[in-house]
Amino acid sequence: MIVMKILRAVALVTLMTAVPLVVPPKAMAQQAVPANDAALLRALQAPAGDISGRISIPDRKAAVLQHPEGREWREFREGTLKAAAGGLLLAVVAGLALFYAVRGRIRIDAGPSGRTITRFGGLDRYAHWLTASSFIVLGLSGLNLIFGRTLVLPLVGPEAFATLTEIGKFAHNFLSFPFVLGIVLMFVLWVKDNIPNALDVAWISQAGGLFSKGKHPPAKRFNAGQKVIFWLVVLGGAAMSVTGYMLMFPFYATGVDGMQLMHMLHALIAAVMVAGIIGHIYIGSVGMEGAFDAMGSGEVDVNWAREHHSLWLQEEMARQGKGAKVQGGHVAPAE
Amino acid sequence: MARMKFLCDADRCIECNACVTACKNEHEVPWGINRRRVVTINDGQPGERSISMACMHCTDAPCMAVCPVDCFYKTAEGVVLHDKDLCIGCGYCFYACPFGAPQYPQVGNFGSRGKMDKCTFCAGGPEDDITPVEYQKYGSNRLAEGKLPLCAEMCSTKALLAGEGDMVAAIYKERVVKRGYGSGAWGWSVAYRESAGA
User: Fold this and answer.
1) What angle do CA B33, B38, B43 make, to 5 degrees?
2) Would you say B173 and B196 are in contact if contact means Cβ atoms under 8 Å apart?
3) Which among A150, A168, A234, A164 has a CA at the least distance from the CA of A195?
4) ipTM value
5) A332 found inside a domain
6) Which of B38, B88, B104 is most worth mutating to test chain A (most A CB atoms within 10 A of its CB)?
7) Are both A55 and A107 inside the same structural domain?
8) Does A156 reach chain B within 8 Å, measured CB to CB?
9) Residue of A nearest to B60 (CA)
10) Do A120 and A10 fall into the same domain?
11) Assigned fold of B4-191
12) B-chain residues within 8 Å CB-CB of A51?
């Protein structure tokens, strides 16, 4: 899309400079206008390319007289985006359904031990749920802008749908702030454990043991899959906030061209993030026994930790003294 | 039924801005909102042209296509109108419009947009014709009174024409033939996928 825009701009400039040279002088004379008008007239009639001039009202952006790029943006919004986002999301949901049908819920192989260890403290979980709750509202209100008119409007009627969408717009604008705060917090809290290393190669080569029962490649605090989600959220979130704030503050940093581009990027990156997060929600809830506790109570079962984060469990045990923070089960009372 | 269109003859427009003033006054459009504007191209150079521009009431209107709440509608006369009760002020119609027609009052925080406002071809809105509530939201409804848009009606050089599409095209063609030149019917290729004269 951007490449097309640039190509078209280049073509237009070439055309505009070349045309007066190509057209024989006689043809211009026939139009009964001064020769230097010919290029202008052609530019005025051309349906392609921005045309702007001077304007006397104190609103610089109104000086753009004609802006045909809107057509490309319309095509993107009506066709490309719906197909790309809709296709991606349906594919992810179908893929997960198939995975669930084949693999079922991933159980703790050794069964729950009844003993737990602290995986995420209060601040960790606060950062996670701050981001998660705002992301869900942002995602739904965003999807509503793409698909609502087709899917929701016929069900609820125009008045209810307009009210719903307007609430969605305000929520989308305001929840961007907690969302960004949550991402900054998560980045600060977890970046040190999310640097890719050799363990991730092994984890990925075994597909994380996702497709084979009883296979658990070693992992530290975060495995390669979680690292992918982390960087998707951090980098995607950064891109979403930059493009989003450009749209939220129209004409502060960019003209309408820029806003069209920002909207395209915003929508496409959002679709990728929503797709990734659907997978994340699946594996953190119905997809795996014991996984939700990490972000729920923050206390995970020791057997779950041994299977999915073996090296992290060892480190924790060593750091805190064996069993010191392990709660419940049959911890012998101090004599 | 008549298909209403605007046509600006750039070879006649003298940039007096009377159309802009007439529009603002007729509809009591708030400060900062300009349903119509005059843009001068090649200002101060040979071949300078001024063009009065507002919503062109496109045949295949992009605003209508991209609106997430589907608040636009087209009248039997081809005028593109919208329902301010449904509009959420998202700005999508402005992204899609080739003529920069949609306008937004800035309400509340950041750059947040209020309900969109644009040229109605002096045809009001979805409320009952010629009622105070219609006037308050959309301005006057001259079409319902049997009159044409005020901007064109009071254009001193008759550069701006508004009315039945075939009729304004015929007037323009006659002019082009008589004077022997014309820079084309402004925005027609984009708005109506056709050209008139020249």
Assistant:
1) 135
2) yes
3) A234
4) 0.86
5) no
6) B88
7) no
8) no
9) A71
10) no
11) Alpha-Beta Plaits (3.30.70)
12) 41
